[in-house]
Design brief:
With 805 residues, the chain is mainly β. The longest helix is centred in the first third of the chain and has 19 residues. 10% of the residues lie in helices and 48% in strands. The two termini are 21 Å apart. It has eleven helices and 47 strands. It has a 19-stranded mixed beta sheet that branches. The protein has a 13-stranded mixed beta sheet with strand order 17-18-19-20-21-22-23-10-13-14-24-35-36, sandwiched between helices. Strands 1, 4, 6, 8 and 9 form a five-stranded mixed beta sheet that branches.
Length: 805
């Protein structure tokens, strides 16, 4: 579970609760049965203050000294009001009497569904409501509670789930986070939130605590609502009557106000949407409450066994504009029989200001900013915050989890023979057995050691030191990497890298997939990758100077040397004399001046430590330009050459569930470019594919100093099967990816003169196309690709695309 952008230049608020505040607490119960009424609303007559009871019917309301008329309401009950002279903390219970009514008949056209007539009027009322609402300001308090079985384990600044569980009914609280925020909204689409205060159990890092009321709230007065990056038609959308089937389930009342309870579900069961009940006022046709869940098609892969939404609305302002006063999202996650989690998110919204003037200057790329004092708020402050009443279980969990985390910090690190590394504590880590060995045909069997430190100096400094010894090439290698981040949101990055190392040619790092590569190489007689020795250092500085622009500059000095195959034949192929030869490189010393810039127009979250970009499906691409310049006279480099690159990367929504990802990269070099600094056309290893690459092209088989590459990947989801009548595959959540890639590749005459071997070129565009089949619960995708031209004996390839490789 892990979420970035611009300095918040206008101080948007002073904590609004500076005066002494008192707590009114208690519970809301059924007057006849004594049963507690969960999620009942408590409001202050004539004021924008209010609260919502929790799942146990318990509420807390924070108010300054004064006299108030408090009103508790719940669907199907007569409201109860109590006059309260408040000079100290008070406890009181509301008792609500259940009521039943039958509404007069609804006038409808013959043959028309009576529920549709109500929804039609509710849609018309929604438009009036939205036309009257131009801007608003609110406060919100949000709480998220994570539950898991007993096998749920807590670590330093993390929460993890053990694989396998025996009794899924035994769920306990594993983590909690809460925050208070102030939000600003202005038409047509401007939104801004500041997190004023936040707290969480000790096993969670504070910077993940950015799930605010404004961020998580779904607006059921909108035409579409997004869940998990999927847009779904809202119950009151203009097209809702053709998308959903509605029918009147019951008629209720709150005091004297009649309310229709209307059941809804998608008219076509293969369309993603909501199932459940909405409540419409009988006189005004305002939306009063929703109690909905997502249908199976919207629940991609069936990963979620529960996705339920409950929300209530009350009128605010002179125009009685209905606004959400609470929101509850209940999510159950089940991954086969490996683990189970439950997430309960609840928000209350209050202190509404309706249609206030808000300057456009307030809205920047930073859609959420965490106040610098948010993590410093103590219990005195939280006791004055209008919050969400904690259950006894939640209060006990805070104490238990914080106590366990404190104890764990004093213990030695747990050791696992199946880990690549293990943490000594929050800061330092050492290699585990799987991270201490690799094998390739140059080094042979290699022992590795490493030490890393992170989070030093207020999460600004990190370093990593490695030392390796190859028993075949009989060489010690080592690296030292360090970086330091400056600025309030660490937007300036300084890095230093010293190395005497063996690396894969053409920029592939040797540590990448070293376990898989070692296993394949040990069990075969051929290794795809090629290597070179590189000694030197690099220094780089990168800084975000504007919200959308980052600049970087650096200096690199490399001494490159050809590496030779020196390992004996693999164990399983004793009949083989040796491995395949390692490609030679253009030996020499090369020094570079590195320059670059990056345009990124996405919004971001300032999480109190970093800026995290959001909005992956942005119509404006992320654009990166980079130049690497090598000079003999000025820099003392072995050759005069320069490489310039530009790439565009992004994704756009095509429909509610489908998106198109695109990647375009161009390379242009001048001067004779040494073999090892040529740019490979992006290909793949046998059997393993990566996104935004040519699947039918072997890695590093086409090298160039002037090239262009375009990748288009269309995520069709499971809806594509519907076009071919294969709805059973759609119901099984079989996902489809369609891709089409193209490339141009040239080698200049200057580079050809120093080329160590002939280089293949694509002087006219190369094309390939293919598709992938996957399932949301399985971490890999089967892909099939065909060459459309330049055909040879390798026109079709099949592989597995997985982030695990």
């Amino acid at each position: 579970m892990r979420f970035a952008a611009l300095l918040f230049c206008v101080l948007i608020s002073v904590p609004f609760m500076s005066a002494q505040r008192y707590t009114v607490s208690g519970k809301v119960i059924d007057k006849t049965t004594g049963a507690r009424l969960p999620f009942a609303t408590i409001r202050v007559a004539g004021k924008p203050n209010g609260a919502t009871a929790n799942s146990e019917g318990v509420f807390e309301l924070k108010l300054p000294e004064g006299s108030y008329n408090l009103i508790a309401s719940c669907m199907g009950y007569t409201s109860d009001s109590i006059n309260v002279p408040l000079t100290k903390n008070k406890h009181m219970d509301f008792q609500l009497a259940q009521i039943f009514i039958h509404l007069p008949g609804v006038t409808i056209t013959p043959g028309m569904n009576p529920a549709n007539a109500i929804i039609e009027k509710a849609i018309a009322q929604k438009k009036i409501r939205n036309n009257n609402l131009h801007s608003y300001i609110y406060y919100a308090t949000s709480k998220a509670v994570i539950r898991a079985p007993e096998e749920f384990s807590l670590g330093d600044n993390s929460a993890s789930v053990s694989l396998g569980y025996s009794d899924t009914s035994q769920m306990k609280i594993g983590a909690i986070f809460e925050n208070q925020s102030k939000g600003f909204v202005k038409k047509p689409d401007k939104q801004k939130e500041e997190i004023i205060a936040r707290k969480q159990t000790a096993n969670l890092p504070s910077n993940i605590n950015t799930l605010t009321g404004g961020r998580v709230i779904q607006n059921f007065y909108s035409d579409d609502i997004k869940f998990f990056n999927t847009s779904m038609v809202s119950p009151l959308a203009d097209g809702a009557l053709s998308y959903y089937y509605f029918y009147i389930l019951d008629t209720l009342r709150i005091d004297t106000e009649a309310v229709y309870k209307i059941r809804m579900s998608p008219a076509d069961t293969l369309d993603p949407g909501f199932i459940g009940d909405i409540y419409i006022e009988g006189s005004s046709y305002n939306l009063k409450q929703v109690d909905l869940r997502l249908n199976r098609i919207a629940n991609s892969g069936g990963l979620f066994d529960t996705i339920k939404i409950v929300q209530q609305f009350l009128p605010f302002g002179d125009q009685n504009i209905y606004m959400p006063v609470d929101y509850r999202l209940m999510i159950g996650i089940r991954y086969f029989k490996l683990f189970k989690l439950k997430l309960d998110i609840q928000s209350v919204l209050y202190e509404y200001e309706m249609n206030p003037p808000i300057s456009d200057d307030l809205f920047t790329k930073a859609v959420i900013t965490v106040s610098t004092s948010a993590d410093k708020k103590d219990s005195t402050y939280w006791s004055s915050v209008q919050g969400i009443a904690s259950s006894q279980e939640e209060s006990a969990a805070y104490k238990e989890i914080d106590s366990i985390s404190t104890i764990n910090k004093t213990k030695k690190a747990s050791f696992s023979p199946f880990a690549f590394s293990y943490a000594l504590n929050d800061t330092y880590s050492l290699p585990a057995p799987l991270g201490m060995y690799r094998f390739n045909r140059v080094e042979g069997h290699t022992l590795m050691s490493s030490f890393s430190a992170s989070g030093l100096f207020d999460e600004r400094f990190r370093t990593n030191i490695t030392s390796d010894y190859g028993f075949s090439d009989k060489r010690w290698k080592g690296t030292l990497a360090a970086d330091y981040r400056l600025g309030d949101y660490r937007t300036t990055h300084l890095s230093l890298h010293l190395y005497r190392d063996l690396i894969m040619q053409f920029g592939h790092h040797i540590a990448m997939n070293q376990l898989i590569n070692s296993a394949i190489t040990l069990c075969s007689y051929f290794e795809t990758d090629n290597y070179l020795y590189r000694d030197g250092f690099s220094f780089n500085a990168e800084s975000e100077i504007f919200p959308v622009l980052s600049l970087n500059a650096g200096y690199t000095s490399n001494k490159d040397q050809t590496a030779f195959t020196s390992s004996p034949p693999p164990v399983l192929h004793k009949s083989k004399q040796s491995y395949n030869a390692n490609n030679a490189i253009y030996d020499g010393t090369y020094r570079f001046l590195e320059l670059g810039l990056k345009f990124d127009f996405r919004d971001y979250i300032e999480d109190g430590m970093y800026r995290r970009r959001v909005g992956g499906r942005n119509a404006i691409p992320v654009v990166t330009l980079h130049s690497s310049i090598s000079g003999k006279k000025i820099l003392g480099s072995g050759l005069d050459f320069a490489t310039h690159s530009i790439d565009f990367r992004g994704a756009v929504s095509v429909s509610a569930t489908n998106s198109l990802a695109y990647y375009l990269k161009g390379i242009y070099a001048t001067g004779p470019v040494p073999y090892q600094y040529l740019t490979p056309v992006p290909g793949n290893s046998d059997g393993f594919f990566e996104d935004a690459t040519l699947r039918t092209l072997k890695r590093d088989s086409y090298l160039s100093d002037r090239s262009a590459f375009l990748s288009l990947e269309y995520s069709a989801g499971s809806s594509l099967w519907r076009l071919f009548g294969l709805t059973f595959l759609q119901k099984k959540d079989v996902q489809v990816l369609l891709f089409c890639n193209s490339a141009l590749s040239y080698l200049s005459d200057a580079s050809k003169q120093i080329a160590l071997k002939p280089v293949h070129e694509y002087k006219s565009p190369f094309y390939e196309a293919g598709f992938g089949i996957s399932h949301p619960l399985i971490p890999f995708r089967f892909e099939f690709a065909w060459k459309l031209n330049y055909r040879d004996d390798n026109n079709f390839r099949f592989g597995v695309n997985t982030p695990l490789y």
